[in-house]
């Protein structure tokens, strides 16, 4: 039985081709963080990474892992697809970071740098000996990477090596978008190379314009005080937003998760989500992977690329519905597409009614 926890050096040992995932917590040694807080962050990070790997189809028990104090290095064996590190792993990890930060005080919030690479590694009883392991850590430490993530305010930045980009990302199909990555210079010690950076939740996506009045309403969004960051943007359209600084010269505020508007201003409850999924799978075409694929491929780009697809229909349906619910009008768009493919059947009407009930006030 596969383990859902990393086994460190006790499991698979690298002995050739593998993929590298390394991460570290931004400002882990900040004086505002006590040792107790750092211990909490360390445990929380591993819980997030292990669960994200498991859900992404990368069983932690099959991987090699070394602790880095403020982060981790994980190597995946050659039989596991390195593309899964790009999607869905990175998006799953970002979702966990947003959920954690929403309920955490500032010192306990986590922002994460991730570097990805494919290469060669050998291990002994002391650890990994590998030029490629050194290389991926240089990517993680790149000043341009650190600056870009700090300026963005996003919770997660992913930097892929040139080799990772060339062999995995450049010609990727499906839910990996090569155009989301941009080249940056990496200059660390003797390393001079190019890395490919993707930061979701950066100002280029869903930016709330600056306002001199913290309570000013702009483009459907009202800014309200936030104890952790000083300010917070709450968008009426319910999208994930990168809240811009209130005044020029101030640092960017942290990326925050917004509730889905158009659905009563709240995210669906677990019961509501499962009700929608059940009604979706009552539709014969939606019981097939091909039918669900057709609808997902027709969704808006921003929604489509964030859906972590699953082989089991119930899990796949839940992932699709849950992701659509995070976007303003996402479920409405999804239901419209289902109707376009299936027609106005009794099952489609039942699906529409289940979605409509999400907008009703909670009792």
UniProtKB/TrEMBL annotation:
Pfam families tied to this protein: EAD2
Organism (species): Thermomonospora umbrina
InterPro entries cross-referenced by the UniProt entry: EAD2, Nucleotide_cyclase
Domain Effector-associated stretches: 277-356
Ranges annotated as biased composition (Polar residues): 214-229
Stretches for region Disordered: 202-252
Protein name (record): Effector-associated domain-containing protein
